[in-house]
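ok trying this again, last paste got cut off
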Amino acid sequence: MSGAGSARARIQRRQLLAVVLVTAVLVPVFNIVTDRPTLAAAVQGLLDAVLISLLVGGYLLFVREGVLRGRFRRLGFGATLVVNSAIVLALFLVGRAVGQVITSLQPRRLLTSFGDAHLVYALPFFVILALTVQFLLQMNRMIGANVLRYFVTGVYHRPRREERIVLFLDLEGSTHLAERLGSTTYFELLRRFVDDLTEPVLGCEGEIYQYAGDEVVITWPHDRGVRAANCVRCFFEIGDVIAAGAARYGRDFGVVPRFRGGLHGGTVTAGELGDLRQQIVFVGDVLNTAARLEEYAKRTGRDLVVSGTLLERLELPAGIASVQCGELELRGKEARVVAYALSGSSRLAGWSNSPAVYPSL
C-alpha cells in the first residue's frame, strides 16, 4: 500500500505543496532585499523557489522518506544529515541554475550561475531553510506530525478534557517469540510489524500514541474515530497488510505475527507532561479499559474486543460481525463492562486473525 494513492503519499504531496508555497513567498522577498528591488528579481525568485522546492522537497519526501527510507534508517543521524545536506545543496544549485537559464534563455547560464556573487547571500539562506525542513521532517518521524503540531500550537499546554477513542494492539506470544528468535531478530520482527501498520493507521486517520514493548497504542479524536468506523477498520486493515506480507514474514522470521486488540472510547484529560522530557499524555479510565479489553481478547482468543458504549456509536463496515461477550469483570474496574467481539474481513481482503491463517506461535 505504498503507491501513489496511499495515505502516506497523500500526506507527502500535501507536505510538498506546503514547502512550495512557503518557499514561493520567501525567496522572491529575499531576492528583492539582497539583490535588486525589481519585478525581474521577484519573478526570478519565484521561478527559482518553485524549481528548487520541487527538486529538494521531492527528494526529501519521496526519495529520502520514500524509496530510500530503509537505507537511510541504517545510517546514523550524523551521517544522514551530512549526506542529505550535500544532496540538497546540489539540488539547490541545479534548480537555481535551471531557473537562470529559463529567464535568460541562455544555456551558458547553467554553468556561469554557479559563480554569481548573489550566492554569498543565497547559499546561507538556503542552507538554513533546508536544515529547517529536514529538522521538521525528522521531528515528524520522531514524535508524530500531529504531536509536533500540538506542541507548536500549544493545544495541550493547559490540560483539557476531550473525547478520545483508544485502540490497544498487542503482539501475541511475544515472550516465546523473543526466546525463539533471539532479542535482535525479534526486534527486527517488531520493527517490521510497526512499519507495516503505519499505512493503515494513516489511512484510517489515527495517531500512534505510544509503543510499549510489543504493544502499540493508537488513538483518535472521537469524531474522527467513529467516522466511517475508522477505529474498527484500522484494526482489520492492519490484518490485511500483515496477511499480504505473510510470505515475507515467513521467509525472514519463520513466523507471521498474530495480534489482538481492545477498543474503547470516552473522556480523557490530555496535557503536556514532563520537564527534561516532555510528551503529551492522555489520562483517564478509557486507556485502562481498552487495555483490559485487549487482555480479555488475548485470553479468550478473540480478534478485537470493543466496549458496548463505543460500539453503539459505530456503523460497522460490511463483513465485520459482532458477538456479545456479556458483562465482563475487568481487572482494576469495579463496574462490569458490556463488550463485543468483532471478527471478519475488511473492505480490502478476506482476513482472519486465527491460527487457520497464522501459524501457531
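PB: full thing came through this time. Residues 346-361 have pLDDT under 50 and may be disordered.
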